[in-house]
Amino acid sequence: MHVLPERNANQGPPFIRLAGVRKVYGDHLAISDATFDVLPGELVSLVGPSGCGKSTLLRILAGLHPHDGGEVRIGSPTHPFDPSRDVGMVFQAPLLLKWRRILENVLLPAEILGLPTAQSKSRARDLLALVGLAGAEDKYPYELSGGMQQRAAIARALVHDPKLVLMDEPFGALDALTREKMNLELLRIWKEAGKTIIFVTHGISEAVFLGTRVVVLTAGPARMADNFEVDLPRPRTLDMKTQERFGEYTRRVYRLLGLE
Amino acid sequence: MNSKLGRWTLAVAAHLALLAAWYLFVRFGEVPKFVMPSPAATLDALLQPNYNWWGNIAVTGTEIFGGYLLALGVGVALALVFTWSKTLEAFFMPLLVSLNMIPKVALGPLIIVWFKYGVLPNSIMAFSIAVFPILLTSARGLREIEPELLDLVRSLKGSRWQLFTKIQLPGALPYIFSGMKVGAILAVAGAIVGEFLGSDKGLGYLMLQVQVTLDTPAMFMAVLLITLLGMLLYGLVLWLERILVVKDARLA
Q: How many CB pairs under 8 A join A and B?
């Protein structure tokens, strides 16, 4: 039996409902039978090997790709969702615009949405402080390290106050130490910002460590293999990774991915 | 020697060294003046009033800068058209790549047939040789957009115009400047070749005139002045790039 993490208890209808979602490219099945719910404010890890369709699923949620079967529903009466302005995205590469200073980079989504400049600027400054980049507003991306650039990319994904943040292996290009640090940072930012986050990764330990819930996808055939809640105390700390229960969760994923 | 001052010193020293080597070679090599004049003799050529230096500089300068500006305008405009229409790009791009293979110098006699002698045909020569690198690199720069950035804009339902003004165009600037630099050098060559082929004014024309009388110092001076015109154009491009393109984004 699993107990819902405390912050998500008694929150009513799910924010995201996926039921039997399928996506086909030509005769290649990119994803099949993806069925899971996400409660408002959850951080769900999508984990699986390359080619399991986790990025495809993310792009379906972002409204970039139509799905070919099943149901995708985002938003609920208590948490309405506007697909044109409620999605924030973070990718593996920071993808900051080289010719813009950090503050201007963070402001990009607000500009595209035509949000009021003064308010967005003040919000961008707050977010840069939140991600630990206070003082870097006027720097250019090349003056920041990879980890710091990714922090700026996270601030950019939050600047228009989206309800849903989609992260596609955001720490995959960072060195192991920076990655651990960014995991802790993300948990802190998530707690402060109170967003629903879908976090795609191929790091099993990372998936379990971050997620309120872990959805496991397998490749060949591409399908959803598991979906479980992670009942570990919050805030998560690095020494939890050495605990028995953490090991049980990661072993559960390893088994599904045929690594044990 | 990493400091800015140190590098400048070395650069100036290299130029002075070449000048000194030239002087010493002529002075002690007993080279006849009609083969290679000394730096002083070259400078003296400027005093020849019947060579109309200023007038010829103005003519060649007009050809270079006129042809270059035309190439810049047409090259970037065509590249922009191509980013807005994939069909037009697919239709014209292979053709342009083929046309680029034409040695533009070979068009010289034709250009003279079509446009007669003078500043216009020589500007067109400069244009025809400078436009391709500008067009091809600009088109490439406008095409090179990270797919994820496209996703980011699309996830916010951003318009194509926003994508263009906020990401594509500023992202293409380093490429455009890279093409502009190559084009600047070629424009100078184009204008001079034009003058060689048929002209009655300009520094290239003057070179042919003084060649007949074996006034080598004047030929040296003409080459020097043409080079200076090229450096002026190239320097202007570099200066503009410095203003418009962030250091990290500049292409070599």
A: 61
**In B, which residues are within 8 Å of A87 by CB distance?**
155-156
| CB proximity A114 to B under 8 Å | no
Q: List the A69-74 sheet strands across, edge first.
A: A28-38, A16-25, A69-74
Same domain, B126 and B188: yes
> What is the C-alpha separation between A38 and A13, in angstroms, rounded?
9
Chain A hits for B247, CB-CB cut-off 8 Å, are: 140, 142
Answer for the pair B62, B203: CB distance below 8 angstroms, yes or no: no
Alpha-helix residue ranges (DSSP H) falling in chain B: 4-29, 39-44, 53-84, 86-100, 108-115, 119-143, 147-155, 160-163, 169-197, 203-212, 216-244
**In whole angstroms, what is the distance from residue B76 CA to residue A228 CA?**
55
Backbone phi, psi, residue A43, to 5°:
-120, 105
Q: What is the ipTM of this complex?
A: 0.86
Across the interface, do A89 and B167 touch by the CB < 8 Å criterion? no
Look up the domain containing B20 and give its range: 1-31
Which residues form the domain of A132?
Answer: 87-161
pLDDT in tens, B95-124: 998 998 999 888 888 988 898 888 999 999
Residue A258: both structure tokens together? 């045929």
In this complex, the residue of A59, A63, A140 whose CB is nearest that of residue B246 is A140
Alpha carbon of A86 to those of A62, A158, A196, B118: distances in Å?
Answer: 9, 10, 11, 62
Q: Which of A64, A97, A99 sits opposite B155 (nearest CB)?
A: A64
Tokens of B124: 């067109």
Six-digit token string for B196: 């060689």
Q: For A128-137, how does the pLDDT look when each residue is reduced to its tens digit (9 = 90+)?
A: 999 999 999 9
pTM (2 decimals)? 0.82
Q: Residue A191 domain-assigned?
A: no
First and final CA of chain A: distance in angstroms?
A: 23
CB-based contact (8 Å) between A66 and chain B? no
Q: Is residue B41 part of a domain?
A: no
